[in-house]
Design a protein that fits this description.
The chain has 22 helices and 28 strands.
Length: about 850
């Protein structure tokens, strides 16, 4: 530490505020600290920037932080509405990026003299009231450790992650938004572009470790995986140059070899210097500057700060990078303030000559040196400098310095107002200890709120963090090594989590490697609709296989973890990528099959009616009278009803049709089969009665046959009554039997009762078939058994085949199978029993007489 500078104007001294800034000095990196003075005065305020270090080499771009401080003080001192009867000035201290020197500088500014006397305030007229610093959180923490003893507030314009976690009781205020806002903003950016496979580079320090602890679980929870996580050691001495080159080669190999196209870089302000070495190392090793393009996402701590000798290095690697920056606004007065600076004015700015020489790569001659090289003329233009080396427009960190000075000025202004309101206690106030005034200043800083010169509101939350958003910047580098920063979006701390990021992706310029197409950074290509992700065993969850959705399920979007079922009224498309509404279907009269079956049922009904009319017309003929004429009429009428019952199965199911269709058919058909059974038994008894001495003749007659038909029919009626009483059929909707249809049907209610009805009809048919088969060889003149055998054979064949057919079909085809079985079995009875008789009655009437029958002619 070479010298402390203080401002004295008209025999007035000021209290102090300190601001550390990064410079390129004796070590690889150093820290500057500024002290600011404020006290009562009665003349126009003035400010000067004094030389505190001799032969210090300033990192050109960070010199802007110094100028931002000076510009802010100049504006405040020239504005009488902020500090009435007060002026501001500052001193500068250097930490040299060394903890011991940082503590020494802090103790020195507390003593108030060049000679350090710990815990003594030698210069009672220069009372320190606050500190602004630093760019790196470790330096700020070292300062805060000492300042906490005296309760002196510190306004930090750089990262404060370490301070938040290690020293929660320190008195400091962050001129940057909370760290969590940036983390959520990065996540929102990744999710917006679908980048789920990324690399991560962090500096090997406490801030980097804290960043890892925060984002790894946060990103993983939201579906982002890490292809590579690397830590970059800090190269902070000239002796580590060779190690830095080796490190650059290692990082280059890892990053460029990764399949991730997006790299999140969390570093310090100087990290871009290290990043630019990647391309330089590639050129040294391969003889080419062509490096695989990546999308670099950089954090707020970083600025595009390059060393002067890097100005001509290629920038293809970081062209198109995205970064989160502290919100800043253009201050026209600041640009003019910078452009008016001349290198010969060393009295007010001791850094300017060194800055000028490094920026323009020239020297100012002196008497001792003969070989001057490139001579500085002093007419060089600052606005012609490469922006990576120095910018005339205020950047994010400089804007934070600017706002920090104003925040402290407003707090001092409020403190002065309070003193004026209690002027009667002036003597008492003058006797109060120094730290009591600092406690009051703390309270005022917590509640400070103002709009700066460009209208941005500045205030702190309850944690002492600046409430402000972040800008998302796209960095575009030209072939002449100049660059442009384009604001493409912002992060709003007040917005909900799903709207925290606003982005205009149409103005983004991507790295030339991607040919201006939006980069893709995923471990596995997206799974198209119709498929789902299946995580590969032993690999991150972002690496997966795409498997087709199983039958009955769909996926409508890309990269779904699981397929979903369609609703009951929908079915999957062929590609299983969307649901299609099912068609409502039933066997209608307009349906081709429904119309055909209707015509067939009506046709057989008409035939049956004609047969019945024929028999009624020839009711006195022998062939009609044979084998119980009344039973024949009952059989024909029941067959007519059976054919008509088939019509109940066609059309949209209603409550009444569902109740009638099964019961009406089963009862009418049971009557038919009962009549056939009665006829069969009558044939057998008639043959047995013709034997001499037979006692069966007394059982012969209509009473027996009618009793058989009636009893068998009543049993079926009783079964149907029980069915309707316990669980009757009802209209229902079948969503599942047919994939593409919603089938309107009649639910049988009780399946057991349904099969009981069919089973009973089958039992009657089996008995009739058995009896008729045994009587088939009886003399023809008394025998219908042969025709009954054929009719029962048809009946049994139809209904035995109906059961498996009914079980294997679905939807309206089940109804069609039942209708077809009804028509086929009824037609079998009608044709086998009555066709031979109708043939004789109509076409062979001469054979329809008793003599022909008694002669045992065969018909």
């Amino acid at each position: 530490m070479s010298q402390q500078c203080s401002i004295q104007t008209a025999q007035r001294t000021c209290d102090a505020i300190v601001l550390p800034l990064v410079i390129y000095g004796k070590g690889f990196w150093s820290q500057l600290m500024f002290t600011l003075h404020a006290e009562s005065m009665y003349i126009d305020p003035s400010v000067t920037l004094c030389t505190c270090f001799q032969q210090a080499r300033v990192l050109p771009k960070n010199y802007q932080h110094i100028l931002a401080l000076a510009f802010a003080i100049k504006e405040i001192n020239e504005n009488p509405r902020i500090l009435v009867n007060l002026t501001l000035g500052f001193n500068i201290y250097d930490s040299y990026d060394d903890a011991r020197r940082t503590y020494q500088a802090t103790m020195l500014l507390l003593s108030g003299k060049e000679k350090l006397i710990p815990n003594y305030l030698c210069d009672i007229q220069n009372k320190l009231i606050g500190i602004i610093g630093g760019l790196q959180s470790q330096t700020s923490m070292n300062i805060a450790t000492v300042l906490d003893i005296y309760k002196i507030p510190q306004l930090i314009y750089g990262a404060a992650t370490v301070m938040n976690t290690k020293t929660p009781g320190l008195f400091f205020y962050q001129m940057v938004p909370q760290e969590g806002l940036q983390e959520r903003g990065i996540l929102a950016l990744l999710l917006h572009f679908g980048w789920t496979w990324i690399g991560l580079l962090v500096m090997e320090n406490d801030n980097g470790e804290r960043f890892l602890q925060n984002i790894v679980p946060l990103f993983s929870k939201n579906g982002v995986c890490f292809a590579v996580i690397e830590r970059i050691p800090k190269c902070n001495t000239e002796g580590m140059i060779s190690e830095c080159f080796e490190l650059g080669s290692k990082v280059k190999a890892i990053i460029m070899g990764s399949r991730a196209n997006v790299i999140v870089l969390y570093g310090e302000s100087y990290s871009v210097v290290m990043l630019r070495f990647l391309e330089y190392v590639s050129q040294l090793e391969d003889g080419t500057s062509k490096v695989k393009g990546k999308v670099w996402i950089m954090t707020t701590q970083m600025e595009f700060t390059s060393l002067a000798f890097q100005r001509t290095w290629d920038t293809d690697l970081i062209h198109g990078a995205l970064s989160f920056m502290l919100h800043s606004n253009h201050l026209p007065g600041f640009t003019s303030f910078i452009e008016l600076r001349k290198p010969f004015d060393t009295k007010t700015d001791g850094f300017l000559r060194n800055f000028w020489q490094q920026t323009f790569e020239c020297i100012f001659p002196n008497n001792e040196e003969k070989d001057y090289g490139n001579i500085c003329t002093g007419e060089e233009k600052l606005n012609s400098i490469n922006g990576a080396v120095f910018e005339t427009r205020m950047t994010g960190h400089s804007y934070s310095v600017y706002n920090a000075v104003y925040a402290l000025a407003h707090a001092v202004c409020s403190q002065s107002s309070i003193r004026l309101k209690h002027r009667t206690k002036a003597d008492t106030e003058r006797d109060k200890p120094w730290n009591q005034h600092l406690w009051q200043l703390h309270h005022l800083l917590k509640g400070v709120s103002f709009n700066n010169s460009v209208g941005d509101e500045v205030f702190f939350n309850h944690n002492g963090e600046l409430v402000a958003g972040l800008d998302v910047i796209n960095w575009i580098f030209a072939k002449n090594h100049s660059f442009h920063r384009i604001k493409i979006g912002s992060v709003d701390p007040q917005a909900s989590s799903d709207k925290i990021l606003t982005l205009n992706e149409n103005v983004i310029t991507w790295n030339r490697w991607f040919n201006q197409a939006q980069p893709l950074s995923v471990c596995t290509e997206s799974c198209l609709p119709g498929s789902s992700k299946q995580v590969k065993e032993g690999e991150p969850f972002c690496c997966y296989d795409c498997v087709p959705c199983p039958e009955g399920k769909i996926s409508e979007q890309k990269d779904l973890s699981d397929c979903k079922k369609c609703s009951e009224r929908e079915y999957p498309s062929k590609n299983r990528d969307f649901c299609i509404s099912k068609a409502i279907t039933f066997l209608s009269f307009e349906d081709p099959m429904g119309f055909s079956l209707t015509c067939l049922a009506l046709f057989f009904s008409l035939i049956t009616a004609l047969v019945l009319r024929t028999f009624l017309k020839h009711h006195n003929t022998p062939i009609v009278k044979a084998n119980n004429r009344g039973l024949t009429y009952t059989l024909l009428f029941s067959l007519l009803l059976s054919f008509l019952c088939a019509l109940l199965f066609i059309g949209q199911p209603q409550k009444m049709t569902c109740l009638l269709r099964q019961t009406a058919f089963s009862i009418s058909y049971s009557v038919s089969v009962s009549c056939v059974l009665a006829k069969t038994i009558t044939v057998v008894l008639a043959f047995m009665a013709t034997k001499p001495g037979s006692g069966i003749r007394k059982w012969m007659g209509k009473r027996l046959t009618n009793s058989i038909a009636l009893c068998c029919s009543l049993i079926q009626t009783a079964i149907c009554t029980m069915w309707l009483a316990s669980s009757p059929p009802f209209p229902d909707v079948d969503m599942h039997s047919v994939t593409e249809e919603v089938v309107l049907e009649c639910n049988e209610g009780s399946v057991v009762m349904f099969y009981c009805v069919l089973g009973y009809m089958g039992f009657l048919a089996t008995v009739s078939f058995t009896v008729a088969f045994l009587a088939r060889k009886l003399p023809d003149s008394f025998n219908e058994a042969k025709f009954i055998t054929f009719s029962m054979l048809v009946f049994c064949s139809v209904w035995f085949s109906f059961i498996p057919t009914y079980q294997s079909t679905k939807g309206k085809y089940m109804v069609m199978a039942e209708i077809f079985s009804i028509l086929a079995s009824s037609a079998g009875l009608l044709g086998c029993i009555f066709f031979p008789k109708c043939f004789i009655i109509i076409l062979k009437p001469e054979q329809n007489n008793r003599d022909q029958i008694m002669r045992s002619q065969k018909y």
